[in-house]
Design a protein that fits this description.
The structure is a homodimer of 132-residue chains.
Chain A: H1 12-22, E1 28-29, H2 30-39, H3 46-58, E2 63-66, E3 72-75, E4 83-87, E5 93-96, H4 99-111, E6 115-126
Parallel strand pairs in A: 4-6
Antiparallel strand pairs in A: 1-3, 2-3, 4-5
Helix pairs in contact in A: 1-2, 2-3
The complex binds zinc ion (4 copies).
One zinc ion (ZN) binds next to helix 4 and strand 6 of chain B.
Chain A binds a DNA duplex (30 and 30 nucleotides) through helix 1 and helix 3.
DNA sequence: GGTAGATTGAGACTGAGTCTCATCCTACGG
DNA sequence: CCGTAGGATGAGACTCAGTCTCAATCTACC
């Protein structure tokens, strides 16, 4: 089920992507990050940005948020399980946890006899600042 | 915020799409539905399928599920607010409700002063049948 | 029947994301 | 210190869901 521990080398590109991620507070698409890097003078291929971001997501180093257009955005988050409250207008993101939700999900899964159950849960709204 | 009540006419194409939806138990992509119709002899343009499905989704007549690849799938569901438990293997779908989740979402939104808060929540797992 | 306006569909187009493959770079052993 | 194996990179072709255009067609209604 898991790869033979491919060595994942620390390259200039990966470092750059990692830094771009650290410097951002909210979710950013691969293209956003690519642009940021280009503007910062770092030459990194778009394919590399996609590959790296995906790898980091699989490794649990970043969170992925599926935007409305199906576009994936990435963010450096806390490592513990959590969800997000995102402003539809400015993208401001707040990490939230919901123990009640977690146990509810477990119960539902058990009740319907589903295994390996995961869940996706995100909240979208308009933050106080964006309401003028 | 809403359209000037455009008349939404019942055409052959819309009827066909509606029937295809009724005949399916699980979520189907626009392309799936288009294929089904073509095979059934109904000639309906792909653009029309997309347009109709979107319109129905906006009107709350069908539910939309964002697949992993960002692909949207549609399903005829109950009209009351609910979520889905979907089998990753065969697509079997169960509608579930979680009052606890709803109130939790409200509380979180209030706590962080976000308005017009909506949420997306889906559960994915492997159903009993698919586990042999 | 006649007309305004909604609807349709073939095909061009968009844009996110993936693939290819020749080249580059890192890690590591001698 | 090299030298090499195999991971990493990137330009550009490519895929594919979904959107747009616009002339032709269909509906509702008088
Ligand atoms: Zn997060
Ligand atoms: Zn905001
Ligand atoms: Zn199943
Ligand atoms: Zn809900």
């Amino acid at each position: 089920m898991d790869e033979p521990s491919t060595t994942l080398r620390p390259t200039r590109q990966r470092r750059a992507i990692n830094e771009a991620l650290q410097g951002a507070a909210d979710f950013q698409s691969a293209q956003d990050i690519h642009d940021t890097l280009r503007r910062a003078g770092e030459k990194v291929g778009l394919a590399t940005v996609y590959r790296t971001l995906q790898a980091m997501a699989e490794a649990g180093q970043v969170d992925v948020l599926q935007g409305p257009g199906g576009e994936s955005s990435y963010r450096q988050c806390s490592t513990e399980h959590h969800h997000h409250l995102v402003c539809r207008s400015c993208g401001r993101t707040v990490e939230v946890t919901g123990p009640a939700v977690e146990s509810w999900a477990d119960a539902v899964a058990r009740e319907h006899d589903f295994a390996e159950v995961s869940h996706s849960l995100e909240l979208f709204g308009i933050c106080a600042d964006c309401r003028t």
